[in-house]
Amino acid sequence: QLLESGGGLVQPGGSLRLSCAASGFTFNSYAMSWVRQAPGKGPEWVSTIVGGGSATYYADSVKGRFTISRDNSRNTLFLQMDSLRAEDTAIYYCAKNPRRGSDGFYYCVDVWGNGTTVSVSS
Amino acid sequence: EIVLTQSPGTLSLSPGERATLSCRASQSVRNNYLAWYQQKSGQAPRLLIYGVSSRATDVPDRVRGSGSGTDFTLTISRLEPEDFAIYYCQQYGESPYTFGQGTKLDFK
């Protein structure tokens, strides 16, 4: 199970930190991602972090502004969002990536959270 | 960036009928890393198919994925009321890992 929190209304240029509490699986064994969905649009991959936290990946649209991290001792995933823009307005989903072999993973999503809403507006 | 184009935009069918949804990629999908998701109103997406044709846990066998290269199809035979939703394809072979714009399956 994945439970997001931290969404809300923020002005352009502002910051938010999203959290995702994970349960029911061995958290540190899985890569985790954030995927967002703007109103009426398809989902959009945002960022992924490997199980140990040593590698991170970002979509170009958020690179340099968003930072993904995790605390495996607390089974929690984070997304620090800075310099927010109107086009970042979306539901943000915490997502678990399935494993590929013994140490790899796939960038599809086999478990989704319920999402937290981020609105960027003045 | 690989662009995924889904068709039709809306598919109107009745329970018991067969649904055929298309997903076309702007370039070949690496390793056939193509997934399908179902999303109901107000809910998160749910994984149905990965690797073009492998069903996810608890997905019934009347749901089938097929295709290769740039052309992929999701077929749902004998539609049940719970199948009426929006369906998205996703390629996860190459960054950025893009999704299609969706096909809405609604009641005729």
SSE topology:
The complex is a heterodimer of chains A (122) and B (108).
Chain A: E1 2-5, E2 8-10, E3 16-22, E4 32-37, E5 43-49, E6 56-58, E7 66-71, E8 76-81, E9 90-96, E10 99-100, E11 104-105, E12 111-112, E13 116-120
Parallel strand pairs in A: 2-13
Antiparallel strand pairs in A: 1-3, 3-8, 4-5, 4-9, 5-6, 7-8, 9-12, 9-13, 10-11
Chain B: E1 4-7, E2 10-13, E3 19-25, E4 34-39, E5 46-50, E6 54-55, E7 63-68, E8 71-76, E9 86-91, E10 103-107
Parallel strand pairs in B: 2-10
Antiparallel strand pairs in B: 1-3, 3-8, 4-5, 4-9, 5-6, 7-8, 9-10
What would a concise description of this structure say?
The complex is a heterodimer of chains A (122) and B (108). Chain A contains no helices and 13 strands.
Structure characterization notes:
The complex is a heterodimer of chains A (122) and B (108). Chain A is mostly beta strands and 122 residues long. In chain A, 0% of the residues lie in helices and 49% in strands. Chain A is built from no helices and 13 strands. In chain A, strands 2, 4, 5, 6, 9, 12 and 13 form a seven-stranded mixed sheet that branches. A four-stranded antiparallel sheet of chain A has the order 1-3-8-7, with no helix packed on it. A two-stranded antiparallel ribbon of chain A has the order 10-11. In chain A, a hairpin with a 3-residue loop joins strand 10 and strand 11. The model of chain A has no long low-confidence stretch (mean pLDDT 96). Chain B contains no helices and ten strands. The mean pLDDT of chain B is 96. Chain A binds chain B through residues 41-45, 57, 59-60, 93, 98, 106-110, 112-115, and chain B through 33, 35, 37, 43-47, 50, 56, 88, 90, 92, 95-102.
